[in-house]
Amino acid sequence: MAARVAPSMVAPTDDELLLAQADLWRHSLYYVTSKGFQCAIKLGIPTAIHRAGGASSLRAAAGGGPPGPPQPLLRHVQGVPVRHQARHTHRHPPRRGRLVASRPRRRAVPPAGQAPVLPPPHAAAGLHGRLRHRRDHRGRRGVFRLTPLSWLLVEGAAPMVDSHPCQVPVALAATSRHCVEAAMGLAEWFRKEAAPSAPAPPSPFEEAHGAALFEESMAELDPESDAMFNEGLAAHDHSGFATVLRECSGVFQGLQSLTAGRGGDGTATRAIVEAFPGIKCTVLDLPRVIGEKRADGAVSYVPGDMFLSIPPAQAVMLKLVLHHYNDEDCVKILAQCKKAVPSREAGGKVIIVDIAIGAPAGPLLEAQLLMDVAMMVVTKGRQRDEDDWRVLFGKAGFSDYKIVKKLGARAVFEAYPYQVLPNTTLICGFCL
Ligand SMILES: C[S@+](CC[C@H](N)C(=O)[O-])C[C@H]1O[C@@H](n2cnc3c(N)ncnc32)[C@H](O)[C@@H]1O
Fold it and tell me: In terms of CATH architecture, what is 240-431?
């Protein structure tokens, strides 16, 4: 039986329906962009172009001449992170190739009550579009060169760009079957989440694989995949930290001591000491990560659980930590931070490096929104916008906070404990 159209409903026009059909194809097939991107990385195309001196034919980059991958196949690899070196002459500076194809259309703010349309996932990579054959100034066809993104994907060398370790492990982890399978269970997971009486389910990742990402259970279940995820995590977390130290030097200047909560292998902490040799730094991480190590030049290592206690210091740094957790757990962690630092007057503060959703519309905002969904799929965490951060710091009992600087999709915050003034009650910046 045909569905009836209520008199108040206005049916879409033919043109709208034709566009809707194209939208349906796009939304159904965006995964191809991600998988094409993965394919380009697995073929080692950025590395090969780099080895060839920065410009190469795609066939050569993807495995040499015959019998390398057939050109028609390569042409259809979506999201290859390279661009054409089209008509490079001194008079005409190199033009960008067409790999960054159609820009996502601006979407109007949805009417009240209507769900916003999430930006197209592939747009976050800013890479979609087909390779087009062009000739360079020597008449060679299909010559490609590295884009800024492919600089991050060159393997086998020291970081190509200051403080940006190779991001191949990040891309391979994010596009792995583990993450894709977890996302495929989202509808089932939402049903469980919404069930009124049932306990909240674990993350979709844990539901799908029976182990929690970045936790002991994953190492026990599948050590090889656990190692892959941890490698991706380290590359992700360390990328761009030198920029933070340069651009936000005031956050660290004058500090006497700092504890890095969930400090991992201490790479970021060692970079702090290198840039600010006067700071006595401590890395806190789980016993299985710290092992027997207790000191490494100016950095001390303490095994422990930050939910239980954090080694005291003038500042505690939580770099890319809180987005792994829901608000309840964040409040517990921040409570331990407050115990670990002195009053604001004595320079006590918590330094937070994390995403603050709210970039202007475009690739940065799309990346932030996709990272929000990704955290929901793989952990129990989320990304937060500025309002969420304000509410969280308030709930955790901090007197005030400020965003020191936004750097790309991330932001650097300082949160201050209550200021205790003589003969006064506590001052709370959130209430004044
Ligand atoms: C995403 S964090 C690393 C981020 C790190 N702050 C950075 O920016 O490089 C991952 C680390 O958190 C550690 N970790 C997880 N739970 C922890 C806890 N309860 N207490 C301390 N460390 C923890 C893990 O062992 C892992 O090394």
Answer: 3-Layer(aba) Sandwich (3.40)
